[in-house]
Each structure stands twice: as C-alpha cells, then as structure tokens.
Design brief:
Elements lengths: L12 H13 L12 E6 L5 H12 L3 E6 L7 E2 L12 E2 H10 L3 E5 L7 H5 L2 H9 L4 E3 L7 H14 L6 E6 L9 H13 L2 E5 L8 H4 L3 E3 L2 H5 L4 E5 L23 H4 L6 E3 L12 H4 L6 H21 L2
Parallel strand pairs: 1-2, 1-5, 3-4, 5-6, 7-8, 7-10, 8-9, 10-11
Helix pairs in contact: 1-12, 2-12, 6-7, 6-12
Bound molecules: phosphoric acid mono(formamide)ester.
C-alpha cells in the first residue's frame, strides 16, 4: 500500500479484517518492519484517540514517531498558491510539506474540513498536497471528507460483535451544538456499503449527505422507524452538506438523542460512537454506560486499524 485515504486503498475487506484479527493477537510480531523507520504525525486539529492509537501502533511495529501539532509551536502555514505573503503566515505549505518529508519515512495527516470552501474541502486540498509534495506514503488520520482509520476500526468492531452474517446497521444523526464535519458519517457509510451490510441512514430533513457516500444505503427520515430491528446503532452528529447551508447547524432537535427508549426499538442493538461524544446531546448516560455500548472496544480497535495500515505501508517501502 502506498497511500491510505479511503476504503478502496485497503482492498478486500474480508482479508483486511482477517489481518486485523491476526495483528490483534500478535501485536509485536512485526517489529522488524519498522526498525529504523520514522512516522511523522501532523495534526492541524485536536485529537486524543487518533494520536495515541496511531503512535502506539507505530511503536508496536518498531517505528520511531514524531508528532507535530501545527497550531502549537510551528510556523503558521499559508495554503493558497499565489497569495502575497504579507500577513501572519510566514511559511507556505508547498515548502513545509517536502521539508517534513525529509525527516521521515511515512506521514499521517489530520486536517478537518474548514467550511470556508466546500470545493476545497471535498477536493481534499490539504491531504492531497501532502500526497503530491511530501515524497512519502501518506495516510489520513481524518481529512475533510473521510476518517478511514475510524471506519476500519468500526468495521472490525462490528465483525467481532455481530451475531448474524448480514446485520442491520443504522447510522443516526444526533444533535450537537457546534458545526461538525461530515467526515465520519461519509466514511462510515462508505465502509458499511462496501461491507454489504443492511445499512440505513437516518437524519432530519436538511442533513442529507453527499450521495456519493450514501451509495446504496436506505435513507429514512423517521428515526424510530429506522431503528426498528437494528443490530448496531451508530450515532454521530454532522453539519449540513447541501448548499446553501454547507457546514451549518440547521437544528439541534433533542428528540434525536439516542436514549434507552430509542434503543428499546432495536434488536437489542449494540451502541457505537467514534468519540469524543457529548453525553445527553448525542446519547444518554444510561445507553453509553450500558452493557450494549461498544464505544471503548471500538476506540481500542483504533490501534489495530492503524497497525494494519502502517504494516501494509511498511511492507510496500
Ligand atoms: N475518534 C477520533 O478520531 O478521536 P480523536 O478525535 O480524539 O482522535
């Protein structure tokens, strides 16, 4: 594998999950792959899970790691070509990226949607500049439109916990006070469609996702109806995708919070969320603390998804 930015880069999903379960049982069995290799992790945005799990995965593989929080201590970066740089940004991404590439063998990038330009966000302007100009394999640690390491961990978690070959998986929008990107729901939809599950997306009107990611999923505007018979409930907030409301919160209807009453409509479903989660906005305390909540094993599988991706990149060097 050279780069990892979406579900197509991982190839056959059955093989990927099989490899993930092997790695999970033998985390330190591939240490030779990363010897004398350096991973550079670049964060344009905050992180807890991605930062820790990816660093741990790299260490399991024997790699050295460098972490750079671009907004804490690095020069402010200009990202637009053609700008007269007489403002507060002393360095251009077009120099910074190849320089970063000089100090490492593999680069992970976290760069969320900025909501300044839908076109720039959906063209993955920042991530693609790393792919084009760093000279190194690049993997997404959540970009503007996708969070593939999270979705891979979600897939592993569903495969470990499913009790039927083709479970019903429901992704439900839930309320949140701030504008959040569509990366996690886009990506989850992309991976669930590729896995071939019975996949339903439910959200209030106005929160329709890019049809490219919705794919073959059934869209149901009645949350209660969508939850009927669900085996897995994946809660997530996202802001509006459609113009003219791109990136905006258009309602915060707390009737969409995932509560015990909502979970009672399901087939004793497991509850999932990528975290961080706002309790009693997205999900009630009792649901996230219940025996059916998978949020902690799901986060634990972030180490495994990152390790499979890094392993495959190292095998390709
Ligand atoms: N789920 C996830 O990516 O968590 P962080 O934002 O804390 O990395």
């Amino acid at each position: 594998m050279r780069h990892f930015t979406n579900v197509n880069d991982i190839g056959d999903l059955r093989e990927a999950v099989k490899e993930a379960l092997e790695v999970k049982n033998n985390r330190f069995g591939y240490k030779h792959l990363g010897q004398d290799k350096t991973l550079l992790m670049i964060f344009f945005n905050s992180s807890l899970r991605t930062r820790l799990s990816t660093q741990k995965a790299a260490m399991n593989l024997g790699m050295n790691t460098i972490v750079l929080d671009v907004n804490q201590g690095a020069w402010k970066l200009e990202t637009e070509r053609g700008v007269i740089m007489d403002g507060d940004k002393p360095e251009h991404l077009l120099e910074a990226v190849p320089v970063m590439g000089c100090y490492c063998d593999v680069i992970g990038v976290r760069s969320f949607a900025r909501f300044e330009s839908k076109e720039d966000d959906y063209n993955e302007k920042i991530l693609n500049q790393f792919i084009e100009h760093s000279g190194r394999p690049v993997f997404s640690m959540e970009a503007a439109t996708r969070h593939p390491l999270q979705s891979f961990a979600d897939l592993i978690t569903i495969e470990e916990n499913k009790t039927k070959e083709r479970p019903k998986v429901v992704m439900t929008w839930a309320p949140h006070p701030k504008s959040l990107p569509q990366a996690v729901p886009n990506s989850f939809a992309e991976w669930m469609n590729a896995a071939g599950y019975d996949f339903v997306i439910t959200h209030p009107e106005g929160y329709e996702l890019d049809p490219k990611f919705v794919g073959n999923a059934r869209v149901e505007y009645d949350q209660d109806k969508a939850l009927e018979g669900a085996d897995f409930v994946y809660a997530k907030n996202w802001s509006a995708y459609a113009d003219p409301n791109y990136g905006k919160v258009i309602n915060m209807d707390r009737g969409w919070t995932v509560t015990a009453e909502k979970m009672a409509l399901t087939n004793n479903a497991k509850f999932m969320h990528c975290l961080p989660v706002r309790r009693n906005m997205i999900v009630s305390d009792d649901v996230i603390e219940s025996a059916n909540s998978l949020v902690i094993p799901e986060a634990a599988n972030r180490e495994i998804s990152a390790q499979v991706v890094l392993k495959r990149i190292l095998e390709g060097l």
